Amino acid sequence: QILTLKPNKMLQVSFLREEKERVLEGLKKRNFKQLELVDEAIQLDDERKKTQQELDSQLAEINKISKEIGILMKEGKKEEAEAAKSKTAQYKESSKELTTKLSEIETSLLNILYQIPNIPYHLVKPGVSADDNEIVYQSHEVHGLGEGAIPHWELAKKYNLIDFELGVKIAGAGFPVYLGKGARLQRALVQYFLDKNTDAGYLEVNPPHVVNEASGYGTGQLPDKEGQMYHVGIDDLYLIPTAEVPVTNIYRDVILEEKDLPIKNTAFSQCYRREAGSYGAHVRGLNRLHQFEKVEIVRIEKPENSYAALEEMVAHVKSILEDLELPFRILRLCGGDQGFTSAMTYDFEVWSAAQEKWLEVSSVSNFETFQANRLKCRFKGDGKTQLAHTLNGSAMALPRIMAALLENNQVEGGIKLPKKVAEYARFEMID
């Protein structure tokens, strides 16, 4: 299904002003409580414009008087020239105050805009939590493995694939050590995902695994309200939570040519997330980690093509899960469960037969111009320069894929890998 699009000038005050009703309705879909921020942003922008006009007027007056002073000096009218100089000094002092005021207003306005999330696409339904998400596809019926099924953390220990306790010793909880066939399986999956993506036309890039503050703000990870990013204080750098951040920032402050679009990149990286406040059974084993491996796909698109690109990315991730022979489903997230920067997101979940629950393994999102506006990622087309649309998706995240592969493929005597996985791993059985 290819969706129609009304361009979204998110985070531009002109959009908040001109589409205020749409903005407020969209924020309500998200269950966003600080609706007053929209009016505050518009009022601050009005004040900014007024202050800018005053400043421009005074600077023009200073320029005019400065020219007059030169003429008066040439004519020998020293007293009048001195009076004009005094007047100029007053204007300069006033303009200095206005410049400071303008800077303070612009900072306040930017801080408010950073707090307003993206406006959901019209197909996104209102909702508060994951319970309100729509299931748009499910591969087949799911069931448990019955008595004797072993969860992946026990399988990992039984077959010496992953040592969680050793990771605690070296770094702490959430930093597992992969061993033997466990390490080989990780490497095989990464290679398969990258090959699958490059075969689909994505250019592989190998980006830094740390980013500066500007990059974090560009893709919306900063301000970090939930404290999820690892910060290297002495260097003021951040460990990346996903390769989306460095890859998308390749196009920060860049004006692309229309003929260059679409841009399709894929990247493998380690990912680091503090997962502050995570605890309980749902975080056992590989279910939630502080360090994990992921292969990402990123696209830069013309606005009118971005939702067709989103559907193409969804179909691509779907084909990966079909190759892995895992039971999976696709959900379209409700407003309240979407990420801060997303206009529309599809989540992919695989069925954990031993844990008998769904595990999220991928999110595919269209951010429309939300990130591009922060990044100043633009393109030239039809005689004008305009913001591009950015999209990204996991293709795929490793930990829960690994968990599902281990749990769902238990057979007598070990774990039998699916054909495609065995082809890349170069072994069929874990025993």
What do these coordinates show?
The structure is a single chain. This protein has 431 residues and is α+β, with helices and mostly antiparallel strands. It is built from 13 helices and 19 strands. It has helices spanning 13-18, 20-29, 36-74, 78-113, 152-158, 164-170, 180-199, 213-219, 244-248, 306-324, 370-375, 398-408, 419-425, and strands at 134-138, 162-163, 177-178, 203-204, 210-211, 231-232, 237-239, 254-257, 263-272, 291-301, 328-332, 344-352, 357-366, 377-381, 384-387, 389-397, 410-411, 414-416, 429-430. The strands form five sheets. It has an eight-stranded mixed sheet. Strand 17 (410-411) and strand 18 form a beta hairpin. The protein is elongated, with a radius of gyration of 27 Å. Mean pLDDT is 92; it is low at 1-10.
What's the gist of this structure?
The protein is α+β, with helices and mostly antiparallel strands and 431 residues long. It has helices at 13-18, 20-29, 36-74, 78-113, 152-158, 164-170, 180-199, 213-219, 244-248, 306-324, 370-375, 398-408, 419-425, and strands at 134-138, 162-163, 177-178, 203-204, 210-211, 231-232, 237-239, 254-257, 263-272, 291-301, 328-332, 344-352, 357-366, 377-381, 384-387, 389-397, 410-411, 414-416, 429-430.
